[in-house]
């Protein structure tokens, strides 16, 4: 039988041996891990050496792809677009061919369509020549402001919004378009004149100036067919209100932003003309929305702005959007009514106006409309 001392020594030796074994195991595992990493890395390097880098996804031969190049885009950005789209397999080769054609600063903005397998040289020649698609069509809906039009132009044609806004000044075009002479001095805005329409700029070098001139030319073509002189005489005779051509355009823009349907436009116009005749505030939320660029709040209607028609009588200093022909016709020939108030009734699937002659009727109509709404859960 072992003594206590002998037993303790034996246990100690056993413990030490166990620790040494664990350390040795850990070392072995570390060495194996390092070796495995080296082997995997070497294998990848060998594969990379013999077979090249992982293949870039290329478009199939003849497969179509569309890219839009923004004005001012660098050659580096264009190369990345082409590479990411799968139209080229090497940006290095693209830059080399760009240098060969001396086309570093000749790429034109716009929308292009290319097929997979198109040689880089042909792609660059097309980029220098200009857009090759019909996607350089710009559709401007009624009721847009100059700012929103600029955003649409950037999205569709690639012209930066800030460049369009910088160019869209009345002073740049007053000498070329006679109708702009109606704008009061001190106003340098083209608000209201950028005619809503679909424009085709295919096969053209598109610039902000080209787009704006096309819109002003369209305004001149369409609106010259309207009889502004007769409209001013009619408004003066019916309401005792004297307006300029520019103010008729401004009235039409307010109608455009307020009316929900074409049928209601002449009725909305009658409300505003009746108010002008009585020297009342127009009290149009839409005019202040033009300033705050969102749906107005009660607090907004207390802000002092020439576009706040709750605080300032008469029309706004400028139009608040580019109106439709329907809104201009309503401004020229409003319905004959005794209405001074309206509000919009929102129902599932449609909206309509409710018109009233007095404030009491107006309040009652609002209360009835609220009562008729289904209780919210």
From TrEMBL:
Organism the protein comes from: Atopobium deltae
Places the protein is found: Cell membrane
Residue ranges crossing the lipid bilayer per the database entry: 29-51
NCBIfam families named in the record: endolytic transglycosylase MltG (TIGR00247)
Membrane topology: Single-pass membrane protein
Organism ancestry: Bacteria, Bacillati, Actinomycetota, Coriobacteriia, Coriobacteriales
Entry function: Functions as a peptidoglycan terminase that cleaves nascent peptidoglycan strands endolytically to terminate their elongation.
GO molecular function (one): lytic endotransglycosylase activity
Gene Ontology BP annotations: cell wall organization; peptidoglycan biosynthetic process
EC numbers for this chain: 4.2.2.29
InterPro entries: MLTG-like (IPR003770)
Keywords on record: Cell membrane, Cell wall biogenesis/degradation, Lyase, Membrane, Transmembrane, Transmembrane helix
Organism superkingdom: Bacteria
Catalytic activity: a peptidoglycan chain = a peptidoglycan chain with N-acetyl-1,6-anhydromuramyl-[peptide] at the reducing end + a peptidoglycan chain with N-acetylglucosamine at the non-reducing end
Family: Belongs to the transglycosylase MltG family.
Entry GO CC: plasma membrane
UniProt name for this protein: Endolytic murein transglycosylase
Annotated positions for site Important for catalytic activity: 258
């Amino acid at each position: 039988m072992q003594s206590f001392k002998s037993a303790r020594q034996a246990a100690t030796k056993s413990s030490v041996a166990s620790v040494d074994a664990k350390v040795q195991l850990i070392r072995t595992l570390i060495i194996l891990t390092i070796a495995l990493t080296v082997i995997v890395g070497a294998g990848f390097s060998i594969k990379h050496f013999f077979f090249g880098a992982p293949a870039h996804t290329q478009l199939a031969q003849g497969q179509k792809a569309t890219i839009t190049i923004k004005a001012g885009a660098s050659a580096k950005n264009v190369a990345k677009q082409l590479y990411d789209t799968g139209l080229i397999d090497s940006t290095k080769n693209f830059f080399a061919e760009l240098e060969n054609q001396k086309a570093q600063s000749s790429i034109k903005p716009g929308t292009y369509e290319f097929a997979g397998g198109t040689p880089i040289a042909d792609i660059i020649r097309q980029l220098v020549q200009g857009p090759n698609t019909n996607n350089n069509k710009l559709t401007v809906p009624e009721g847009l402001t100059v700012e929103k039009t600029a955003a649409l132009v950037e999205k569709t044609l690639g012209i930066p919004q800030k460049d369009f806004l910088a160019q869209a000044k009345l002073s740049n075009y007053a000498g070329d378009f006679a109708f702009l002479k109606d704008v009061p001095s001190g106003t340098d805005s083209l608000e209201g004149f950028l005619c809503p329409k679909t424009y085709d700029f295919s096969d053209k070098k598109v610039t902000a100036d080209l787009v704006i001139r096309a819109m002003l030319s369209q305004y001149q073509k369409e609106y010259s067919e309207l009889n502004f002189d007769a409209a001013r005489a009619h408004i003066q005779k019916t309401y005792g209100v004297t307006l300029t051509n520019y103010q008729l355009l401004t009235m039409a823009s307010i109608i455009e932003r307020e009316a929900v349907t074409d049928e209601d436009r002449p009725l909305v116009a009658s409300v505003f003309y009746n108010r002008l005749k009585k020297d009342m505030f127009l009290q149009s939320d839409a005019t202040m929305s033009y300033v705050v660029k969102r749906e107005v709040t009660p607090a907004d209607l207390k802000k002092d702005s020439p576009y706040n028609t709750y605080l300032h009588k008469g029309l706004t200093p400028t139009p608040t959007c580019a109106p439709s022909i329907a809104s201009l016709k309503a401004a020229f020939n409003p319905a004959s009514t005794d209405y001074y108030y309206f509000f919009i009734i929102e129902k599932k699937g449609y909206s309509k106006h409710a018109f009233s002659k007095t404030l009491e009727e107006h309040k009652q109509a609002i209360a009835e409309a609220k009562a008729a709404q289904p209780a919210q859960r």
